[in-house]
Write a structure and sequence with these properties.
heterodimer; A: 346 residues; alpha/beta; six-stranded mixed β-sheet; two-stranded antiparallel sheet; 12 strands; elongated; B: 191 residues; mainly alpha; Potassium Channel Kv1.1, Chain A; three-stranded mixed β-sheet; 9 helices; 3 strands
């Protein structure tokens, strides 16, 4: 039992302070607290509180495990041939959860997506699931201006910011348009960005098991492999914010964050670049020189064609540049390369 | 944690620069550095109204709602943050929320607020009265963290709140919130 001082102080809490305390709470706790008394219920019914919504998925996780993962399990069911009866049982519950918490009044959506990735699910598939879930949230919250994501697995691909330009149902790159959503700021805290797929064409999986890719154009007109074994498949970034009104800055910030927080590429892996450069065809050599000239400060003052690829010290390059060279397979040629939904451009 | 003893009247000789005198509910007078005093928007406002002419004289700003024991604690917080924080422009509500999202409660503040809940609430009310937004926000966050861990019954008991719902109202609320209260069926799970 608290001291009488606490009882006295709480009783006389000004509404503004009570509002500020309640605003700090995740939505599930807010709902729970509406059962305390009619006064608290009234405070929690304040429309101002509905302006921001904080979903701590970990709290829901115990009770809504299967339903939360619905899109993902559909896909896994497709992959493994397993029936997931639990999906049907719980689907309604996840919709209840989201539609009860997010509304047209929601301007700020804060989602703590701290759900443990099952060991047998690869990082890239998990980040894909997270993306599906994020789109779903944005479709419900049509007027969200600020989207705060915590502990999420995120696709670390080039121009990730475009994924948040939501024209109704599908992400912008799917149909090549970028209809503005009300969304203005997307902020990731402790995000795990899948760098393995940074240059890899992004696959979208649908509940029926089919998949597609956005846009259909390879990134930066090149064809890529995944990062070689030995490189960390993801990068943890403490804080990354996209201002969607300033896309070029958003991309720069993403590159800077990846450069700053990606793990070092093992020297043995970097050494493979020396061998790789020896066997590059001429068009690829030109492309690599352009990449160095564009992205590496030490080569900015040099004409791209003057760069000697055989003398490049790979370990001094920015991590994102290292990743580009490590993933690089060929310069894209529409006569030669075609898209395979499971392996990207081959 | 250090004590707030350094803020009492016996230390008026302290550092050079403009000093501001304030008095607490009990009438005890404290002398504050201008920078420290102005972290309170209330004191800042009064000083601006007075044209900052009171710095050199003996006028004392009365803080009639703040008890000495709480003011001593707040002074510790003000002095620490006056020396460590950058001055920030006022933010829009959305930006405030973003800033709170981006920042964890710093370790120093966690230790500072590692006190009885009664004291946190009193600091929070005093910070509200003095309009020290950051301190008030930290207290709110700390109280919210306490609430998260309690059941409805524990909260009622903790704060002496009477359950004033009728049985019908309770049933209605239970129905409305059933979707987030009950355990879902587990059969058929593949994991």
């Amino acid at each position: 039992m608290e001291s009488p001082d606490v009882l006295y102080t709480v009783y006389y809490l000004p509404p503004e302070i009570l509002h500020e305390i309640l605003q700090e709470l995740d939505t599930l706790t807010q709902i729970k607290l509406s059962r305390v008394s009619s006064e608290w219920k009234a405070a929690l019914s304040n429309p101002r509180l509905r302006k921001s919504c904080f979903l701590d998925i970990k709290l829901f996780h115990g009770t809504l495990h299967n339903s939360l993962l619905t899109p993902f399990w559909y896909r896994l069911a497709f992959c493994t041939g397993q029936a997931t009866r639990a999906i049907a049982l719980n689907r309604e519950r996840i919709e209840d959860l989201l539609y009860n918490c997010i509304s047209e009044r929601t301007k700020i959506l804060h989602v703590k997506l701290d759900v443990d990735r099952p060991d047998h699910v690869p990082e890239q598939i998990w980040s894909d699931f997270c993306l599906h879930f994020i789109w779903h949230l944005l479709r419900i919250g049509k007027n969200i201006t600020h989207f705060l994501l915590e502990d999420a697995w995120v696709d670390g691909s080039v121009e990730l910011w475009k994924y948040f330009m939501v024209p109704g149902r599908l992400p912008a790159r799917f149909d090549g348009t970028a209809t503005p959503h009300s969304l203005r700021v997307v902020s990731f805290k402790n995000g795990l960005f899948s760098t393995q797929r940074r240059f890899f064409p992004t696959l979208v999986w649908f509940p029926n098991g089919r998949c597609a890719t956005y846009g259909g154009k390879p990134v930066n007109d090149c064809v890529y492999d995944k990062l070689p074994d030995g490189c960390s498949p993801y990068t943890k970034i403490p804080l990354l914010t996209f201002d969607l009104r300033n896309p070029s800055q958003a991309e720069q910030d993403m590159v800077l964050s990846l450069d700053c927080h990606s793990e070092e590429v093992p020297p043995g892996v970097l050494q493979t670049l020396t061998d790789k450069v020896r066997n590059l065809p001429e068009d690829a050599r030109t492309r690599w020189k352009a990449e160095l000239h564009l992205n590496e400060p030490q080569y900015r003052g040099v004409e791209a064609k003057e760069i000697d690829l055989n003398s490049v010290n790979w370990s001094t390059l920015r991590k994102t540049t290292q990743h580009f060279f490590l993933c690089f397979k060929a310069v894209y040629d529409p006569q030669v390369h075609h898209y395979d939904p499971f392996h990207g451009y081959v | 944690m250090s004590t707030a003893a350094s803020s009492s009247t016996s230390e008026t000789i302290a550092e050079p620069g403009l000093k501001i005198k304030v008095s607490t509910k009990e009438g005890e007078v404290f002398e504050l550095d201008e920078k420290v005093a102005k972290m309170s928007q209330v004191i800042r406002g009064i000083l601006e109204d007075l044209g900052e002419q009171n710095g050199g004289d003996d006028s004392v700003l009365p803080l009639t709602q703040v008890e000495t024991r709480i003011f001593r604690k707040i002074l510790v917080w003000l002095k620490y943050h006056a020396g460590h924080d950058k001055e920030e422009a006022p933010k829009a509500e959305e930006d405030e929320i973003i800033a709170r999202f981006c920042e964890e409660i710093p370790e120093w503040d966690q230790k500072f607020l590692n006190v009885d809940q009664a004291v946190i609430l009193e600091i929070m009310l005093a910070a509200d009265y003095l309009d020290i937004k950051k301190l008030r926000g930290l207290c709110c966050k700390t109280v919210a963290n306490i609430l998260k861990t309690k059941t409805v019954e524990q909260i009622r008991e903790m704060y002496g709140i009477e359950n004033d719902f009728t049985p019908e109202e309770e049933e209605e609320i239970r129905k409305q919130t059933a979707w987030c209260e009950d355990e879902p069926p587990r059969q058929g799970s593949n994991h």
